[in-house]
Amino acid sequence: MHQLVALKVIALRGVHTQAQLAEQLLIDAPAASRLVDRLQEDGLVTREAGADRRCVRLQVTNACWPEVEVLEDEVLRVDEEVAKHLSAEEMSELKRLLDKVQVALGTNTVVHEKQLAE
């Protein structure tokens, strides 16, 4: 699942370096590198030479899109399930609070390094 989150961040949020990925996922650089290694092994991401020799640019492959779609479908399913148990007002408040947490954390996605090892 963590690979899917990383893939979504790379594919849909304009993240093109491992450093940006690490920052978005709140993980260290070695963990981001291992995550990209797995995505590359699965044929979902490529590493290409960047403008700076020390930095590589991450590019998604066409094979990534079905995986991203799976994640997007799951997000919609969870939203629909939550909506069954909350009123429209409560859903609005939940989204407001989650947005506030995201701003406070300074990121859109939170994945801790221990979770990546699972």
Automatic annotation (TrEMBL):
Molecular function via GO: DNA binding; DNA-binding transcription factor activity
Gene Ontology terms describing biological process: response to stress
UniProt keyword list: DNA-binding, Transcription, Transcription regulation
Gene3D superfamilies: Winged helix-like DNA-binding domain superfamily/Winged helix DNA-binding domain
Residues of the HTH marR-type domain: 1-103
PROSITE patterns: HTH_MARR_2
Pfam families for the chain: MarR
InterPro entries linked: HTH_MarR-typ, MarR/SlyA-like, WH-like_DNA-bd_sf, WH_DNA-bd_sf
SUPFAM superfamilies: Winged helix' DNA-binding domain (SSF46785)
Keyword Zinc among UniProt keywords: no
This protein's name: HTH marR-type domain-containing protein
